[in-house]
Design a protein that fits this description.
single chain; 146 residues; alpha+beta; Nuclear Transport Factor 2, Chain: A
Length: 146
């Protein structure tokens, strides 16, 4: 006779399945690359976290409605003199923004260099994605538009 209730065995199996599932992050690829089925390809796991970090760095205060302080606000520093003080300010703004807005990563290492020939800052980031215990490296180039 079935009562429609799950047995203890089924409940424990379902809980084990939920606990053992690997946490997956997903995000939308802003380049909007489409598949052969004309769907937009989603980013998952490490790629999603990298995209989030890049978006945080390239977002300035006031760019997002209802989130006026989201982002690293680096545009304000791009027209400052390219000296050690500006490099330090960029470094600290990046560290603060990533710590505040990206809780999925830790062990962040940041290196900021100024390239005289192209008048751009090269930001090298290395970090660990906590849920997957996976390390990642990325480079973001910051350049003046005008």
């Amino acid at each position: 006779m079935s009562t429609g209730l799950l047995s203890d065995k089924n409940v424990y199996e379902k809980q084990a399945l939920i606990v053992s599932r690997r946490q997956q992050y997903s995000d939308l690829d802003l380049s909007l690359v489409r598949t052969s089925k004309k769907d937009i390809v989603p980013l998952t796991d490490l790629d999603a976290v990298k995209t989030s970090v890049r978006n945080i760095l390239l977002t300035n205060h006031g760019d997002r409605p209802f989130q006026p302080y989201l982002g690293a606000n680096l545009r304000a520093l791009l027209f400052e003199p390219a000296d050690q003080f500006t490099i330090f300010a960029i470094h600290e703004d990046i560290r603060f923004a990533i710590t505040k807005f990206e809780p999925r990563i830790d062990q962040v290492r940041i290196r900021v260099d100024f390239n005289d020939s192209s008048s751009q800052y090269n930001v090298s980031l290395a970090f660990r994605v906590i849920a997957q215990n996976q390390s990642a490296d990325m480079i973001v180039r910051l350049e003046r538009i005008r």
